[in-house]
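Recap from last week: sequence in, structure out.
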Amino acid sequence: MSEAVKTWHVLEILKVTEEAFLKKGISNSRLNAELLLCHATGDKRIELYLNYDKPLTQIEVSNYREFVKRRLNFEPLQYIIGKTEFYGLTINVNKNVLIPRQETELLIDKTLEYINDNKFKLPKILEIGTGSGCIAISIAANAECIINAIDISIEAIELAKVNAANNSLKGEINFLVSDFLKGDISFEEYDIIVSNPPYIPSVEVPHLNTEVHAFEPYFALTDGADGLKFYIKIFELYNSTYKKPQVFLELGDGKKNNIIKILNNFKITDYNLYNDLIKIPRVLELKGSR
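Predicted structure tokens:
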């Protein structure tokens, strides 16, 4: 006689998964367990608790176990469920793009503040290193504008196009495959430049936590050198532009002093630094002349 297959219920399977995640040192273990179960069942989180004693189907359990196995291997939750929330929008993500971080939302805030304060009509914006498109899409969802968003990765650009199509936009975005460091790019036609560039020194990448260095794309994390190459080229182009655009750049942790030295070398003095919620210098603003 074949052994009966165990029937799992929502609350029971969540408790077992939470314990397994805690033993692995995975933060927000309960939330991870809940979101993966939602992904397996198609339910919302509130529905899990309204139906905590609901029996799960064998297909749901099988899918959930596969998701849990991947998470126990430290694959990021966002890659497993295929999406994340950013600036109030749903952004699809996969292994070809960096997972959007909450601290990057300050970059959007400052860009939109500048557009609104100056009452711009259809500002032309260049985004460097768009990845999932989350920055360009967040700006275009809240302002009428024209954005050229570039990235070296064809796969990233294709995903960014999908994300743009999935969200309601006030502005227009043109996604373009381009190698910023090697390409012939001018800032002359733009009112605003925005970027969250790869800023982690290459020697530090192997020492990042497993979720980052083992799964997120290498060239979205680092420029392959000291993490300063994008800033240097942006400053060079800014200085060579007659009618200078307003520039908004995200800074990595501990980058402030190096960036200020480079700004001094370029004799750029008209800038502001903005701290994030935990008081880390996060956004650099270069003043434009338009």
